[in-house]
Amino acid sequence: MRYIAQSLVGLIITLLVVSFVIFLIMEAVPGDPAEIILGMSAAPDTLEALRNQLGLNQPFLVRYADWLIGLLRGDLGDSYTYSTSVAQLIGERLTVTLPLTCLAALLSVLISVPLGVLAAARPNGVVDMFASLFSQIGIAVPNFWIGLLLILGLALTFDWFPVGGFPGWEAGFWPALHALALPSVALAIPQAAVLTRVTRAAVIEITNEDFVRTARAKGATPSHALWRHIVPNAMIPIVTMLGMQISVLIAGAVLVENVFALPGMGTLAYQALAQRDLIVIQNVVLFFAAIVMSINFLVDALYTVLDPRLRVRR
Question: Is the pTM of this model over 0.85?
Fold first, then answer.
């Protein structure tokens, strides 16, 4: 518990540092939000009045403190271009990005862990060669290109899936899941390729440990030794890589959501950047950073469950 509490304090301090860096970078981004809202032909006094209304003329630290206080209250401010609450925008887009990311992570695990374990169980076998080929192709091909191939092959040619768009969860669970199927596959394949290699290497390394040979000497069958002793002890590097992949999935969602015209967080961030909507950008980036750091915190806490030796040391 003491270690988890220390990690939680470190997480909060890191979030504060990240928030300051994000706010500082947004200050360096060219473009005047008042000119974006009113247009380049607006009168100078009108621009100045709008800057005062938005608080843009206040000192840097004052505006940063106001932003932090608003975050603690749940008030993320109002979008310059959408003229609505940023919290409402993020909440609406999160209903697309969160299921997409979770579904992609689930597919990545379901593909990579069995494939990596079976490949390591019989090195240089048929499954191992297929896993190696799958890993090389999955790592080499970017996710947005996989998305385009899926659209051409399964959506346009066979008409099995929609080309793009999202009907909304109010249209029903299965129509919404059907619209997220191809984007989640496009996100999952590159991550599954990396995780397959990590799983294979971890299982082969544990296979050569002394306790595995002892279990086999006591009469454990190869299948029992594999799933009872080897795989559970190989989960730590797998979980570590899976936690690192969440940030890659979130970054990949920006491209994939634009390829499939999904109204998610990635599309919101891209549109806000194009429109210089700084308040939306800084809140979206901080939200992404908070998700990644929180998942890394949970993965670090999960180590103590997977490896009892860490509990003894800590």
Answer: no
